[in-house]
Amino acid sequence: MPDSLLSASGLTAGYNGVPAIRDLDLEVGPGEVVSILGPNGAGKSTTLSALVGLLPLMGGTVTALGEPVGSKKPHLLARKGVILVPDDRGLFHGLSVRDHLRLSRRKPDAEREKLILKSFPALAALDARKAGLLSGGEQQMLAIGSALLGEPKVLLVDEMSLGLAPKIVQEMLPAIRSLAQAEGVGVVLVEQHVELALGVSDRALVLNHGRVVLSGSAADLLKDRSTLEAAYFGADEFAEDDPEVFAS
Q1: For residues 162 and 159, what is the distance between their CA atoms, to the nearest angstrom?
Q2: CA-to-CA distance for 50 and 61, rounded, in angstroms?
Q3: Which residues form the ABC transporter domain (predicted)?
Q4: Of 77, 174, 185, 196, which is the most exposed, with the fewest CB atoms less than 10 Å away?
Q5: What is the SS3 assignment for 185?
């Protein structure tokens, strides 16, 4: 495995003294895409919050870019290149696409902006439109494009497909995969579309009730669908849950 950009060992975190995730281990290296999968309430978003220092640790350790996450405030961690795209996309609805991209740049870099717009071509035609007037898919493209303009070393994306049509997700996930490989960015995806996420991931882990119940290479998890589904839904719940999250 390549040297870790982001790692967690025995990570335990939660709210009001009650753990929502327990004993989670995670490693993300340069150019790797790691997916965190699981049903609603499994602890996926809590994991991302703890990884970037938005949520205090109740146990275990997190290291980002060689330093303990607990030693830095989240905004300082973001400046170093650990960037979270939250599930609400974190946009300013009164600002235009152009404004968001301009504010996201660490320095003037026309070539980098061209690369981002090439990956998300719909944004190029929406330059002057305010973020609040964009569709859900366009907003997500803007949120991720803005994050990538910030030259991340680690990019964490929470529920990229939330509210989006699978076709849009199919277009966006490969773009993130390509940029990760081209620039050596470590990517952590929290995603509901399981097979789409695994299709662009190197490795994945499945959370259920706050614990990792399955982990391995994305290719191996895709090969053993029955084990993956049982881990995702839980053996007793499988028949009652919606299998559409596995649709590609």
Answers
A1: 5
A2: 10
A3: 6-234
A4: 174
A5: coil
What residue segments make up the domains of the chain, in order of their start?
A: 6-246
Q: Give the per-residue pLDDT at 1.
A: 41
Instruction: Determine the pLDDT at residue 60.
Output: 96
End-to-end CA distance of the chain, in Å?
Answer: 28
Q: What percent of the chain has pLDDT over 90?
A: 48
- Tokens 């499994």 correspond to what residue? 42
Q: What is the largest CA-CA distance in the chain?
A: 54
Contacts of 157 (CB under 8 A, 6+ apart): 84, 85, 144, 147, 176, 187, 188, 189, 190, 191
Write the pLDDT tens digit of every residue in 208-223.
999 999 999 999 999 9
Per-residue model confidence as pLDDT tens digits over 32-86: 999 999 998 999 999 999 999 999 999 999 999 998 997 567 888 888 999 998 8
Q: Rounded to an integer, what distance in angstroms lies between the CA atom of residue 201 and that of residue 229?
A: 17
Q: How far apart are CA 15 and CA 146, in angstroms?
A: 30
